[in-house]
Each structure stands twice: as C-alpha cells, then as structure tokens.
Design goal:
This protein is mainly α. Helix content is 79%, strand content 0%. Helix 1 runs antiparallel to helix 2, helix 1 crosses helix 3 and helix 2 runs antiparallel to helix 5. The two termini are 38 Å apart.
Length: 196
C-alpha cells in the first residue's frame, strides 16, 4: 500500500510497517494474562474482530490521512493478530500430550501453510483488481475490506463452533463428533478451555 499506492520509498514504508512488528513483541506479555483473565474463547473472538476492524479501517486510509491516525491503526492490527495467534497456537496443542513431536510439527506446518495461502490470496486479489484496471489505492482498499469481512466471518464461525463443542460436551456426544479426542480428561480439558 505505502509503496505501490502512495509511492513512498522502501525505507519510509518499511519504517511504518515496523510498527506492526513492534506491537507483535510489545503485546506478547499481555497475551498470556488476557487468556488467563478472560479465557480463550473471548480472546480469540475479540482479537479476530479487532483485527477485522483494523483492516476495514485501513481500507478507508488515504495518502492524505495523518500518520498520527495510521500508526495506531497499524498497532491495533498487529496487536490483535499477535494475541490471536498466541491464543489459537496454544489451543491447538491441547490434545497432544507427552511431547508428540510429529503431531505438533504437522499442526505447525498447517498453520504456516494457511498463513502463506492467506498472504498469497491477498496479493492475488490486489494483482487481479489492478489487472482489471483499478488504481493501486482502490485495489488495496478493496482487498483490506475483503480480508476484514473474511476475518469477521471467521470470528462468528469460531464463536458458534466453540459453542457447539460446549453443547456436545454437556450431552456427552463430543467423543462421537470428534473421534480424535480420545480420553475423557482431554475432552474435559478442552471444554474448560473453550467454554471460558
């Protein structure tokens, strides 16, 4: 956005993007305490919705928009993403007890591939919109809006999915619906985590 649509130099654009990485690091200590305080479900849904809101807000940013407004939006986007990643990266390991390295490696690989596909899809959308004749700014704005809507839909799906897991657990149907969860202790631990 900053280089292609605004024509900024790589140095200036890179310095602004460093805000995203600064907040990734600065928010990490808070992530652990927010999960303990508010629970996984609320943190995952809130982080996803905040990230979606930040991307939708970025879709309205213009070259004339003050940096005093852009920097907090970028900070919010990176912080929400960091807290969200921390939440679901720890949740996915609940079933893998005893240091099962093969399963943990597979889960991590799936996460990395999903991230790469998301980035590729975003770049592909910007490129396609540009090839259809839209200016770079409009292509980026539409892409930010689309990604924001997809993230908001994901938050709704996570919210409803975790509620369904809780209902299955209460009815003792979780083992039937999710055969990968083998023991009652794992099911209980999983339900306690997602029902918070």
């Amino acid at each position: 956005l900053f280089q292609l649509a605004y024509g900024w130099s790589a140095v200036n654009a890179g310095l602004l993007v460093m805000v995203l990485f600064f907040d990734n690091l600065s928010i990490k200590p808070f992530a652990k305490y927010s999960i303990r305080w508010w629970g996984y479900r609320l943190v995952v849904v809130a982080a996803t919705l905040l990230g979606a809101a930040a991307l939708v807000i970025l879709s309205f940013v213009r070259e004339s928009t003050s940096l005093w407004l852009v920097v907090p939006i970028l900070y919010l986007s990176g912080a929400a993403r960091s807290v969200g990643f921390t939440s679901y990266m720890t949740m996915q390991y609940l079933e893998y007890q005893g240091g099962d390295g093969k399963c943990q490696s597979t889960v991590n690989t799936v996460h990395q591939v999903a991230t790469a596909l998301g980035i590729a899809g975003s770049v592909g959308l910007v490129s396609t919109l540009g090839a259809l004749g839209l200016q770079q700014l409009a292509a980026h704005q539409i892409t930010f809006a689309v990604i924001g809507v997809v993230l908001a839909a994901t938050a709704l799906w996570v919210r409803l999915g975790l509620r369904q897991v809780g209902q299955l657990w209460q009815n003792n149907d979780l083992e039937k619906a999710y055969p990968g969860i083998h023991t009652r202790s794992n099911v209980t631990m999983y339900y306690k985590v997602v029902s918070q």
